[in-house]
Design brief:
- The chain is built from 14 helices and 12 strands.
- With 501 residues, it is an alpha+beta fold.
- The strands form 3 sheets. It has a 5-stranded antiparallel beta sheet, sandwiched between helices. Strands 7-9-10-12-11 form a 5-stranded mixed beta sheet, with helices on one face.
- Helix 8 runs parallel beside helix 13 and helix 9 runs parallel beside helix 10.
Length: 501
């Protein structure tokens, strides 16, 4: 059976979950709606109060007129007939629909009253017993009825004959007024709801250019900053000014990045040549000179190692600068993964005395990649895994293929990477632990170069890690279509390939 109330609650719950209290749309909608609520609510309240004043004011004026003219009528009729008949005649003349007139003597005896079939039983006694009545008409509730009541002395020729009571039944008008208030409140609520909905829709459409601008800038890459043009349809003047400001800012940022890349490229190139010469002289001296003392030889070996490390850093900087400028030359060709990874694993295990295992889940996986770049990528990842793993825990490289891609995973059981650092470890010069990076000799460029090389080969690299449980770096590269011919050429290139630095 269809139940609308749970459905409405569910829709309301989902709609509320999508509301962002901090959004500009929510703030504008609530602000304008609050102003509309105060305006419409205030106007409705004032109209209700004013209507009540006018309606009750007319009734009070009617009661006041009757109470003022009744003594004059009694005085006029008293000249023509006995006093009791004059009172009855005056009451008869001044009695109107829904008006009840009562005259009592100073001792409280009823001298005359209106003959109205509608008035409730005991109204006369109730009026006589009410001590708060005054000459100014006031509204009183008697039983379930509402009356406008006035009491004043009945004076004829300066003599007080008793007390005059005038009561006007306004129950029907009060009920009608209450129903009108309910209708007005309901109409005001509906009007406010429609206005809020209309404002929300209007504000949402007015903010469409800002959303378009956010979507355009969200997908901008670093290489597109200088060419970014934000084309918005029917954008307000303020948004157009913001667009021009953003485009100008992006252009200046692109110029600054280009200058930084050029500076990095130039300084790396200029420093690499003299450092290469220094390294050559140091290596030559260590090989040829036989008169060096042990401290001298140790000092020269340290200087040569530091020079070699600095040259590698400069080469990484040059490759990163080429990748940023789009001038990184990669020779994409079919590469058979298993023998290439096996050679790298054996070299890493021999140089570090740390076990490195290779597990191929699919045989003869051939990817389209640059052989030298892929070697640098895997060597860097395996080296990092060895640095941050315990000596008794092997580093495992797994090979697999899925959905037209070759999958390479480098897994370790080391210290792991905290979650807050995983999104930034591929940034340049970013280190998870400064002290540990200095101890292991890293400068924060290796993973940045790894990502640049992998993306340059049309692949992706991701990381999954938990502290004290290890890390898994996953490389995805497209498979090569002609598998047999590519495998043969990859084996031939493997025999001819030079060792990686």
């Amino acid at each position: 059976m269809f139940q609308p109330i749970p459905l409405i609650r569910q829709l309301t719950h989902h709609a509320w979950e999508r509301v962002d209290p901090n959004s500009l749309r929510f703030r504008l909608t609530m602000g304008v709606s609050l102003v509309a609520l105060l305006g419409i609510g205030g106007m409705s309240g004032w109209m209700s109060w004013r209507t009540q004043q006018i309606l009750m004011g007319s009734h009070k004026q009617l009661v006041a007129d009757v109470s003022e003219r009744a003594p004059q009528d009694v005085a006029a009729y008293a000249d023509l007939m006995p006093l009791e008949q004059a009172v009855d005649k005056a009451i008869e003349v001044r009695t109107l629909p829904h008006v009840f007139i009562l005259v009592t003597s100073p001792t409280g005896q009823v001298l005359g009253q209106s003959d109205q079939p509608w008035h409730q039983e005991g109204l006369a006694a109730t009026l006589i017993a009410m001590p708060t009545l005054a000459r100014i008409p006031q509204i009183f509730e008697v039983g379930e009825q509402d009356y406008v009541i006035c009491r004043r002395p009945l004076l004829v020729d300066g003599d007080s004959l008793g007390t005059l009571y005038v009561a006007l039944d306004v129950t029907a008008d009060r009920v009608m007024f209450s129903e009108m208030l309910v209708s007005l409140a309901l109409g005001t609520a509906i009007a406010i709801a429609v206005i809020v909905l209309g404002i929300a829709i209007y504000v949402g459409r007015s903010l469409i250019p800002l959303r378009q601008m956010s979507q355009m800038t969200e997908h901008l890459s670093v290489n597109d900053l200088g060419r970014a043009r934000l084309q918005l349809a029917n954008a307000p003047t303020e948004v157009e000014e913001l667009v021009r400001t953003c485009e100008s800012t992006l252009a200046r940022l692109a110029d600054a990045l280009d200058q930084q890349r050029q500076f990095t490229h130039d300084i790396s190139h200029e420093l690499r040549t003299p450092l290469t010469i220094v390294y050559g002289y140091l290596s030559s001296t260590l090989r040829r000179c036989t008169t060096l003392t042990d401290p001298q030889r140790e000092a020269l070996e340290v200087a040569a190692a530091e020079a070699e490390q600095t040259i590698r850093i400069l080469e990484d900087l040059l490759d990163l600068a080429r990748a940023d400028s789009g001038s990184l030359q990669l020779n994409l060709e079919p590469v058979l993964l298993e023998p290439l990874v096996q050679d790298l694993a054996e070299m890493a295990a021999q140089s570090s005395n740390h076990p490195v295992e290779v597990a191929a889940r699919q045989p003869d996986i051939v990817v389209q990649a640059d052989t030298g770049a892929l070697k640098r990528v895997l060597a860097n990842l395996i080296d990092n895994a060895l640095k941050y793993s315990d000596a008794d825990q092997p580093v495992v490289v797994t090979l697999d293929q899925q959905e037209g891609n070759g999958i390479i995973q480098v897994c370790d059981r080391g210290v792991g990477i905290p979650l807050q650092h995983q999104s930034r470890i591929f940034d340049r010069c970013y280190r998870v632990d400064e002290a540990r990076s200095r101890a292991t000799g890293g400068c924060g460029l290796g993973l940045a170069l790894v990502r640049a090389l992998v993306e340059g080969m049309g692949g992706t690299i991701t990381v999954r890690s938990k502290p004290q449980e290890g890390s898994v770096f996953t490389i995805t590269l497209p498979l090569f279509s002609d598998r047999h011919d590519s495998a043969h050429r990859s084996r031939r290139r493997r025999r001819k390939a030079s060792p990686i630095h």
